[in-house]
Write a structure and sequence with these properties.
There is one protein chain. By secondary structure, the chain is α/β, with parallel strands linked by helices. It has 24 helices and 30 strands. It starts with 17 loop residues before the first helix and ends with a strand.
Length: about 700
């Protein structure tokens, strides 16, 4: 096990979680046979699962419990165990964790509650954490349900668990009940491992994800999160999954703190909620789930290697219903999935196979007239899959409950045709029911045994198809994001007095190569007139200071000033304002009109990010922003700009003059670089005015970290 220290309560090395994920020996602290107790349930789970390793109870008042030998303490164990499961009142837990570390045990699973989830337990949780880090001991919990390691037949779980047939899908959940429901759900998922992380006092979800990425047999992970966690470690864990082609489905609940900066900046309202987190998930090529049902279904389909397309074509949907075809077409368009038209060769071959009532299109309604004709269905699947424009098939198949005996054969024949067609085609194949409950567990097992995943619900299946088509940007990109997150991790949460005035911020922007209007600071009204004369043209006057972040609210600016007397008069007015105390007077050339944009770089999300959107009144009215985790090079920023709903304002839609998109992308990318390199916590450029020739920062906010 690698060394770990508790200096300042911070992790300094990566803990080895393998003893908890692949235990060969287990001790249950608080062992008893009291019905309904966690310890009793865990011991019975291990008995039912026929765990092959040694199990000891730890209870000073018992010699044995349920046939398992008991010892008085962890220190009295005959040998260090891989997993110490703790199910005693919270007050005694930190000492047990320390004892497990001193004994050289592999790790601890703390089922006990009464820690950081309540005000009175926070001190205990700090004690637990310090004890674990002092000994380099990984801990799952506290206040979690534990770990089910199906391959090791180790159900170290606080609720009753039936013996599991090991599979390839893992789950990491901050909610114990979501884990309980996942294990009890009858949808044909064969679990590899389920981890209930609880309060994450020592090991968080990213640690478990990184460890499972290196475990034998894991093909996909369902990740249920209630908090952001450490962005650098999470990005690194995603990188490990990407390297090993492990699919990840993510369900993130609750309001994220990402973008929740001081109310003096727009970034909080524009990049708030979960957008930064979702941007990281999308960079990783992971699937974003909207609810627990989707999370489990996506994880199951991501675990099937044969469902991944070559990505040299598009999707074709096959149903026996015109209504389902229409729904599939609409949902595919909403999700941005390409449904390419079928080529002439394909159409000609289908005309020979389909009844006259069928309409040859994509989605393809082959009609219920051929229902139960295995051979013909298999040939249709093969023909569509062979189309040069198609590399992935989604086949609709509904299996109602309580089929009449005389109907079973025709449904079985349809499944046989699906299996035969899927094995013949080179296109990746996924099957789905149209409604989530029109599914049969036995049918799932039958198709899965032939390498064809079945997803409950058409809409969920299409989300799964999209996830299968997304490879992300690869581990190198994710590691760049992780490095940026680590770089700024110690600087988040700057104090209110760390704001730079606009003049100081623009001096820094100019030094970093980011264009700002020509201008300078004036010492008094006469100097302002001299500055305006030197600059030429209409000018703007502004008060600049770290305390002035909404200048228009207090009248601390004047725009479009032309005459020298006008400049002098407005300079006198501005310098007479109460806000002028401690402020500078900035004189700048007025910019040419153009399209206004909003560009912000911030460290307040799970990872540092760049936020780009239309500026001015459109910023919050349209809620149209793109978010790019940092670092962000020019090409990536330009793609983000083109993804905006209002991108037509930039690219020349409806006869408009296109802006210099290259200049805008360069400016935004440099803003991200400036944040990372200049020790800033926030850099907000609003507005940035883009014209056909260039882009210019008209106003700037910056906050030191």
């Amino acid at each position: 096990m690698r060394a770990e220290t508790a200096d300042s309560g911070q992790r300094t090395a990566e803990l080895d979680l393998r003893p908890l994920l692949e235990p060969r020996s287990i001790a249950i602290v608080g062992a008893n046979d009291r019905a309904g107790s966690y310890a009793d349930g865990i011991l019975r789970n291990l008995k039912r699962a026929r765990f092959a390793g040694r199990v000891w109870g730890v209870n000073p008042k018992r010699d044995e419990v349920l046939g398992f030998e008991c010892v008085r303490s962890v220190a009295a164990l005959p040998e260090p165990v891989d997993a110490v499961v703790v199910a005693i009142p919270a007050a005694g837990v930190p000492a047990v964790v320390a004892e497990a570390g001193e004994r050289g045990c592999g790790g601890a699973i703390v089922i006990s509650a009464g820690f950081g989830e309540i005000d009175g337990g926070r001190g205990l949780e700090e004690e637990l954490r310090a004890a674990a880090l002092r000994h380099g001991l990984p801990v799952c919990g506290p206040n979690g349900n534990g770990i089910v390691a199906a391959r090791a037949r180790a159900a170290m779980w606080g609720d009753s668990v039936a013996p599991l047939e090991p599979g390839h899908v893992a789950m990491i959940t901050q909610s114990g009940n979501v884990g309980v429901n996942a294990l009890g759900s009858r949808r044909g998922i064969h679990w590899h491992t389920v981890v209930s992380t609880g309060n994450q006092a020592v090991c968080d979800a990213s640690d478990w994800l990184a460890a499972l990425a290196e475990a034998d047999g894991v093909r996909s992970v369902a990740l249920f999160l209630e908090s952001d966690g450490d962005g650098g470690r999470l990005a690194e864990a995603f990188a490990r999954c990407a390297e090993r082609s492990i699919g990840v489905a993510v369900l993130k609940v609750g309001s994220s703190q990402a973008g929740a900066v001081a109310a003096s900046a727009h970034t909080g309202s524009l990049a708030g909620d979960q957008r930064v987190f979702r941007a990281l998930v999308e960079e990783a090529g992971a699937a974003w789930a909207e609810n627990p049902h989707e999370l489990l279904e996506l994880a199951r389909v991501l675990a099937e290697p044969g469902a991944r397309p070559r990505n040299d074509g598009g999707l074709a949907v096959l149903t026996c219903s015109g209504g389902d075809s229409g729904v599939a077409a609409d949902e595919s368009e909403r999700l941005g999935l390409e449904l390419p038209p079928l080529g002439p060769v394909t159409r000609g071959r289908l005309e020979e196979l389909l009844p006259p009532a069928a309409t040859i299109a994509n989605p393809l309604d082959y009609t219920a007239m051929i229902w139960g004709d295995s051979e013909r269905l298999a040939r249709i699947i093969d023909v569509v899959g062979a189309d040069p424009a198609v590399d992935q098939l989604l086949l609709c198949y509904d299996h109602p409950r309580d089929l009449a005996p005389e109907s079973e054969d025709s449904w079985a024949a349809v499944r046989a045709g699906i299996v035969q067609g899927a094995s013949a085609t080179a296109a990746a194949t996924v099957v789905c029911s149209t409604l989530p409950d029109l599914i049969d567990e036995q049918a799932i097992e039958e198709l899965a045994a032939n390498g064809v995943p079945l997803v409950a619900g058409l809409a969920t299946a299409l989300r799964g198809v999209r996830a299968l088509r997304s490879a992300g940007d690869g581990p190198e990109r994710l590691r760049d994001i992780a490095a940026a997150a680590r770089r700024v991790g110690a600087t988040a949460g700057a104090a209110e007095n760390d704001w730079l005035g606009e003049a100081e911020a623009k001096r820094a922007l100019r030094a970093f190569g980011i264009p700002v209007p020509e201008g300078r600071v004036a010492s008094d009204p006469a100097d302002a007139v001299a500055a305006a004369r030197a600059i030429g043209g209409p000018v703007a006057l502004k008060l600049s200071g770290g305390h002035l972040r909404h200048k228009s609210d207090v009248g601390a600016l004047a725009l479009g000033l032309r005459g020298h007397s006008e400049v002098e008069s407005e300079a006198q007015r501005l310098l007479a304002l109460p806000q002028a105390l401690g402020a500078e007077l900035l004189v700048e050339r007025m910019a040419e009109p153009g399209v206004e944009l909003f560009v912000s770089a911030t460290t307040d999300g799970v990872v540092p990010s760049l936020v780009i959107g239309l500026g001015g009144i459109w910023a919050e009215l349209l809620d149209d922003v793109a978010i790019v985790p940092l670092p962000a090079e020019h090409a990536r920023v330009e793609r983000a700009l083109r993804s905006l709903r209002g991108a037509g304002l930039l690219t020349g839609a409806r006869g408009r003059q296109p802006v210099a998109l290259d200049a805008v992308a360069t400016l935004a990318a440099n803003a991200g670089g400036m944040l990372l390199n200049n020790g800033l916590d926030l850099l907000e450029l609003n507005p940035v005015v883009a014209t056909s020739t260039d882009a210019l920062v008209l106003d700037a906010l910056a906050r030191r970290a």
